[in-house]
UniProtKB/TrEMBL annotation:
Binding site for Zn(2+): 11, 14, 153
Cofactor comment text: Binds 1 zinc ion per subunit.
InterPro entries for this protein: GlcNAc_PI_deacetylase-related, LmbE-like_dom_sf, Mycothiol_biosynthesis_MshB
Protein name as it appears in the record: 1D-myo-inositol 2-acetamido-2-deoxy-alpha-D-glucopyranoside deacetylase
Family recorded in the similarity comment: Belongs to the MshB deacetylase family.
Keywords: Hydrolase, Metal-binding, Zinc
Cofactor(s) recorded in Swiss-Prot or TrEMBL: Zn(2+)
Catalytic function, reaction form: 1D-myo-inositol 2-acetamido-2-deoxy-alpha-D-glucopyranoside + H2O = 1D-myo-inositol 2-amino-2-deoxy-alpha-D-glucopyranoside + acetate
PANTHER family from the UniProt entry: 1D-MYO-INOSITOL 2-ACETAMIDO-2-DEOXY-ALPHA-D-GLUCOPYRANOSIDE DEACETYLASE (PTHR12993:SF26), N-ACETYLGLUCOSAMINYL-PHOSPHATIDYLINOSITOL DE-N-ACETYLASE-RELATED (PTHR12993)
GO terms assigned for molecular function: N-acetylglucosaminylinositol deacetylase activity
A Pfam family assignment: PIG-L
Length: 301
């Protein structure tokens, strides 16, 4: 079977942070990996001082710069098919604010033309066209909370979920191509056990700044998924270097000496090279002794 995987993400950088190792692993073994990014990340911060002029409140050219960052990241992962939903610049980054309880949320005045205010059916139709062209057996996106509450992540979840249904409906927009039913849909997840183990190692090594304020013995809350709800673990430790190089490519968003890289090597390999998933559509394939699939195409041979 020719394996085809489609990932739907909100901003350039989400793909590398969340599934960079998985993408590199499957691309290396010949799976067709397609990434759809819904915005250009125009409202992002700019961590590189020499690029501060690009910010949305200055020259507003961060979006075009992040197109290049994404292309560079895809080269590191070996992914050759990456697209912007509706074409580059169709949906603008909605921005975000931090809610008092620690997760992201939409600001008071979300601008016209942003992804959060997009017409859901219009945005979904753009994705249906891609789904019917690519015909993926596996689709990956965020959970209903966008994993940490960012409005664009939540909207990407909604568009991806709606597009899976409509792409399979023969009577919906036949002009967008023959119907296609995606066999398996996964939500990216962060294992509670793995995050707790990583935090314990960091704190034991004296690191109090990485994931500052998080106590490994506390309830880790919305950050993580309880292991009872995990369905798949992709061990891509051989591709950690590619993932970290892809994350570094998003230089305006991810500080090389920031929390993502502050992990010591051994913690880094364990935390970043293994990526977790919840299966929300389709039948679970063969599992290991923990009840976890180790291949997202399990059961589809
Ligand atoms: C990983 C991710 O989704 N990044 C988004 C996010 O970026 C955050 C935002 O700039 C926030 O203000 C910072 O405090 C935080 O550190 C950033 O991770 O939101 C941006 C604006 O919508 C988006 O461009 C970026 O890709
Ligand atoms: Zn994002």
């Amino acid at each position: 079977m020719e394996q085809r995987m489609l990932l739907v993400h909100a901003h350039p950088d989400d793909e590398s942070i969340n599934q960079g190792a998985t993408m590199a692993k499957y691309a290396a073994r010949g799976t067709q990996v397609t990434l759809v990014t819904c915005t250009l990340g125009e409202e992002g911060e700019v961590l590189v001082p020499g690029l501060a002029h690009l910010a949305s409140d200055k020259e507003d050219r961060l979006g075009e710069h992040r197109i290049t960052e994404l292309a560079n990241a895809m080269k590191e992962l070996g992914v050759t098919d990456h697209r912007f939903l509706g074409g580059a610049g169709t949906y603008r980054d909605s921005g975000m604010v931090w809610h008092e309880s620690g997760h992201a949320t939409a600001g008071e005045d979300v601008k016209e033309g942003t992804f959060w205010r997009a017409d859901l059916l219009e945005a979904t139709a753009h994705l249906v066209e891609i789904v019917r062209e690519v015909r993926p057996q596996v689709l990956v996106t965020y959970d209903q909370f966008g994993n940490y509450g960012h409005p664009d992540h939540i909207q990407a979840h909604r568009v991806a979920t709606y597009a899976v249904s409509l792409a399979a409906a023969r009577s919906f927009r036949p002009d967008l191509g023959p119907a296609w039913d995606v066999a398996k849909v996964y939500w990216g997840a962060m294992s509670e056990t793995r995050m707790r183990e990583g935090l314990r190692k960091l704190r034991a090594a004296g690191d109090t700044t990485t994931f500052e304020g998080m106590d490994p013995e506390d309830d880790l809350g919305w950050w993580v998924t309880s292991d009872e709800f995990l369905d798949a673990e992709v061990d891509a430790n051989d591709f950690v270097a590619a993932k970290l190089a892809a994350m570094r490519a998003h230089e305006t968003q991810i500080a090389v000496d920031g929390p993502f890289f502050a992990l010591s090597n051994n913690v880094g390999n364990e935390v970043w090279g293994t990526e977790y998933y919840r299966l929300v559509k389709g039948t679970k394939g063969p599992v290991d002794e923990r009840g976890l699939e180790t291949d997202l195409f399990a059961g589809l041979e």
